[in-house]
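User: Hi! I'm working on a homework problem where we have to compare a predicted structure to a textbook description. Could you give me the structure for the chain below?
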Amino acid sequence: IEMRLDQLGREPRIVLETASVIGTSFTTDTLLSALPDAGNGLFEQLKTLLNHDFLRQRWGSERYEFRHALIRDVTYAKAPLPYRQLWHRRLAEALEQTTQLTRPIVIELARHYYFSLVEGYADAANPDETVILNRDSDPATVDKALYYLLQSGQDALTRYASNEAIIFFKRAQQVDLLRQRSLSQHAQIHN
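Assistant: Happy to help. Predicted structure tokens:
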């Protein structure tokens, strides 16, 4: 998969990497919310990705999907971290503005805002336990990540999905620690 990715041109690769941030399937509207400058060239890039068997599109559907989950996972892992963070943030902002905040959307918002803050992992074998958050993150983004993570955790508890709730609350705790450090540093600077 990596060799096939390396053979792609720059533009189709950026489109594929952005799509991997969205998830296993997506629409062009969702893709454009993360890549607002793509414009008309987007359809040409998607055609290239279809022809190279990275993506597929069901007859009559506006949705595209990765041909295989491994293609999506490898593409996501190979995408440069600053771009992944940017695309996650743009997707979260677009979701907030254009959709009703249903349970699945709130969970997506939690995921996108959280991963817009992730800087790396201290231990790749156990990423949720050893996440490193970007200390220079925008405070509004940090607050939104915390809010949606807590909402998603509460929702998971009401559905008796305790393992899911634990993940959301652990992530919320990590984000809250980042928020507290940021507030502490801000207070020190202004004293």
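For your comparison, note the following. Residues 113 and 178 are 14 Å apart (CA to CA). The chain is about 65% helix and 10% strand. Good luck with the assignment!
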